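Entry 14. Structure prediction run on the chain below.
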Amino acid sequence: MTCDRCEEAAREGCRFCPECGEPLDSCTMCSEYARKGYEYCGRCGRCLANDKKEDFIVEKTVFITVICIAAMLIIELACMLWYSADTYTYLKDKALGIFLLLPQMVTVGEIGGTALQMFWLFIVVAIVASCIVVAYQSRAILDRRSSKYIQGIRSTPAYWIALFFGAYLILSIAVSAIEGALGYRIIIPDGLPTGVSPESLFTYADAAVWEEVASRMVPIGVPMVIVAGLCGKRDCLKYLFGGFGMTRVALVLMVVSAIIFGMAHEGAWGASKVLPTVIGGLMMSYLFIRFGIHASIAYHFLLDYSAVIADAVGPEIFSFIFILVAITGFVAVAGVLKYAKEGISGIRDMPVWIHERETMAEEPEEPEAE
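Output returned:
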């Protein structure tokens, strides 16, 4: 469930939430009818046969990846915070170009000195806050007393971050292998920082935050603010930060954002980098739309800072985590394809602009009787 309305809508027998547009996997009577051996739910009509066969294999497998990414995030945050003072000092005489994606990367300004040091502190706060919010929104993972614990896992941002992380690992390897067989290679940019160094710590943290601003807030959040404003939504500015749920307009913006994100990497990394980056962009855009920018920042940070922790924890520990995630990644790919198929089949039932309940104008007050 992704909003306060989901649970109520499920009780009413809805297949999709009228507020956030997310598919509701079951109503409160589905499990009761399934327990009695029926093939369909008597309330919502949902086919129950598949529930008996799947046994939540994807959810149980991805739960292993959740543990792995939690460990990785803790290590990454520890590295960033431990060396934050060194990075702050390192940036004293450095300069950074501020870019936008139009769709190629275009530098629109530059900051340096004290301003850049303050920007570093902002980045650190943004990443730590994002991870804390993700952890808070994923607290249902710790509530093992719930009768629908396994089903509830899929409603948390941690589950989707883990699902996408494992799937992206396998898909990017597969795409790179196919492109390599065709004679295309990803070009590693000259001077790309690696290891635990102030340059690496800043570069990848900056990418996790600013690329999400340029690739998610600007091409998705800003248009959705305009759409919400035109639809009469008074608090339309909250759409800038995501978490508004999927609509047909948001779906189009998600695809456009991912393509722009992929094309922006072509100049430095070569054409072979575009497709894997588009795939990653789709995943981060989905996290932005469904949960908010904190989820996409946490995922981006997790992905990019892998280059840092590989050197921090040593090759043995990193290889163990990498192999474990890779093994579960095959199931994650199947899960992503399954959810994508369900999402495509539900496009016709999606709200077009923003969710119907949110577009409802407040009823005018009745004039007082004379």
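The mean pLDDT is 85.
Filed with the rest of this week's runs.
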